[in-house]
């Protein structure tokens, strides 16, 4: 059974959790052959009720000491654009779909997602159907992105690129 792991890191991103558990996203996941959805919800207020049926299983937890196993065994990771979550997922070789939190001020998440997308390492999107002007036209909603993405087209994030990644982050946050 193919599985999706969703992580918000140590933060709260209720919009992502609500979006990924919406009927249209669950249906899109099922149509793509995913039968298991595991949510790491951090300190968020939205806490979906876990369930299991013959067609689909939803598991929920707040934190674990490590999410390495969830990332490694997932067929797809859907994540906020936190640098740590992105780097760990890309380093594990697991396909990554980043959902940008477009409500953040000084949104370095968008810059990070955009660059990693341009390099062919991931897809990115937003939860909202009405796109903010700061997002490019090709940046779609989660449901639309799931339906149109081609995970086989992603480029691997090769070992040894952590310095390149760190330099990008330093530039994005104004340390260079």
Task: Give a short overview.
With about 180 residues, this protein is of the alpha/beta class. It has seven helices and seven strands; from the N terminus they run E-H-H-E-E-E-H-E-H-E-H-E-H-H.
Describe what this molecule looks like in 3D.
- With about 180 residues, the protein is of the alpha/beta class.
- The chain has one domain: Glycogen Phosphorylase B (Rossmann fold).
- It is about 35% helix and about 20% strand.
- α2 (about 25-30) packs parallel to α6 (about 140-150).
- The chain is globular.
- The termini are far apart.
Lateral arrangement of strands in the main beta sheet: 3-4-2-1-5-6-7
Strand segment tally:
7
| CATH fold-level assignment | Rossmann fold
Distance between the termini: 45 Å
State the helical fraction: 25-40%
Could you list the spans in which at least 5 consecutive residues all have pLDDT below 50? 135-139
Structural class: alpha/beta
What is the quaternary state of this protein? single chain
The coarse overall form would be globular
Count, helices? 7
SSE pattern, N- to C-terminal: EHHEEEHEHEHEHH
Query: So, the CATH homologous superfamily?
Result: Glycogen Phosphorylase B
Largest sheet: 7 strands, mixed
* Average of pLDDT: 85
Strand content: 15-25%
Q: Which CATH architecture is right?
A: 3-Layer(aba) Sandwich
